[in-house]
From TrEMBL:
It comes from the Bacteria. This is Glyoxylase, beta-lactamase superfamily II. The lineage of its organism: Bacteria, Bacillati, Actinomycetota, Actinomycetes, Geodermatophilales. Signal peptide: none annotated. It holds the Pfam family WHD_BLACT. Residues 47-208 form the Metallo-beta-lactamase domain.
């Protein structure tokens, strides 16, 4: 029988702020200020985290994931820029989802700052399309462009000189990240988790939820184990006789409210695509079988 024991999340013993208790603005380290956008939801947790990155005294800052184009959020970002005595010199975006990218072009225009992203549509006219491995010399520091496809094909993380990594939606401050079919790719996602793990990050600054500073490697190990757990659950459900995507969801997500099952089905399809590519299952439309 496949291994189906749930891995435990190392963060349960950490002293993380309760959901909804993240401060509006926080200086995480000399290089980084975080500004929380006022868009909390089931998907965005406390809201989207917008980051300002720059060497203190450089008079400059890079804005990473401006988030929603919301006047109150813009005011908070401008206040944080003023507190850093910095002007915005570039806008970077981890991926094209609106809760990260919506304000990129309007605020880039407002600040006279170039927008940069992996997706040309996000970078916009006059923007810059980022390549994996690029080193961006901006605001008196260097940001490394780390490809992290999986949640979306265009997803990037940014490695700072301090060793911290801005991970967007690749890793969340609470719970696990969502990889859904057809946008997401579980194989790419797992490779991206290992890539960030190999960087030996000193901290993970997430697109949503609190900063992870205590043992970032343990969180990445947990994310990998959680994915393996989900695969094991699906294989075990197939052994028990579930033969369709819906039956698999009803078995594996029995304890989860039914309203979340459609999302669970998209996540299940993404995992099944990996298992099918590896020859562990055969998927034919909604029908799923062991080979
Ligand atoms: Zn997001």
């Amino acid at each position: 029988m496949p291994h189906v024991r749930a891995p435990s999340d190392p963060r349960v013993t950490w002293d993380l702020p309760a959901p909804g208790a993240l401060p509006r603005t926080a200086v995480l380290e000399p290089l980084v200020t975080r500004v929380l956008a006022p868009n909390p939801s089931g998907m965005t947790l406390d809201g989207t985290n917008t980051y300002l990155v720059g060497e203190p005294g450089s008079g400059q800052a890079v804005l990473v994931d401006p988030g929603p184009d919301d006047p109150a959020h813009l005011a908070a970002v401008e206040e944080a820029l003023a507190a850093r005595d910095a002007r915005c010199v570039a806008v970077l975006v981890t991926h094209h989802h609106g809760d990260h990218a919506e304000a990129a072009q309007p605020w880039g225009a407002r600040f006279g700052a170039q927008v940069a992203a992996a997706d040309a549509a996000v970078a916009g006219p006059g923007g810059r399309v980022l390549e994996p491995g690029e080193r961006l010399r901006l605001a008196g520091t260097v940001l490394g462009v780390v490809p992290t496809p999986g949640h979306t094909p265009d997803h990037l993380a940014f490695r700072l000189e301090s060793g911290a990594v801005l991970v967007g939606d690749h890793v969340l401050g609470r719970g696990t990240s969502v990889v859904t079919h057809p946008e997401g790719d579980v194989v790419a996602y797992l490779e991206s988790l290992r890539r960030v793990h190999d960087l030996g990050p000193s901290a993970l600054y997430c697109g949503h939820g609190p900063e992870l500073t205590e043992d970032p490697g343990a969180v990445l190990d947990y994310y990998l184990a959680h994915r393996a757990f989900r695969e094991g659950q699906l294989l075990a459900a197939l052994v028990r006789g579930a033969g369709t995507v819906d039956a698999l969801v009803a078995d594996v997500y029995a304890e989860v409210p039914r309203a979340l099952w459609p999302a669970a089905a998209q996540s299940t399809r993404a995992t099944l695509a990996k298992l099918a590519a590896e020859g562990h299952v055969v998927v034919d439309g909604d029908r799923v079988a062991l080979p």
